[in-house]
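INTERNAL AUDIT FORM
Audit reference: QA-55
Scope: verify that the stored structure record matches its stored sequence.
Auditor: D.O.
Record contents follow.
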Amino acid sequence: VRSLARIVIVPVHDIVRLEAEDNYVRIWAERAYLHKETLTGLCARLDPREFLRVHRSHAVNLRLVRELHPLVHGEFRIVLANGAEITSGRSYRQAIQRVFGLTRGTLE
C-alpha cells in the first residue's frame, strides 16, 4: 500500500476487512490504510476462499468472521474478530449462505 513517500507491506492474512471509498479502498488491518484501487479490482486479486464481498462497499476476511445474525430482509449483521460489525447487502445473501454452509432451515 502506498502511503505518502513509502510503500507499506500489509500481509493479506492481517487484513480484517475492506471498505470502498469511491475509487479507493480502506484496508482495515492492525491500522487502516487507504489504497488507490476500486473494491472490485482488489477483490479480483484476492483469493475468494479467503475474502468474500458481502456488500457493494464491503468485503471481509472469512477467517475472521465470528458471528452471523440474520436480519429481516435477507441481510446479515456480520461480527468480525476485532468487534467490527457490518451489515451485508441483500444481493449478497446467497453467496454468504453458500460460503458458510447455511441452509434455509438453519436460518429460521
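Auditor finding: record pair retrieved intact. The chain has two helices and ten strands.
Action required: none
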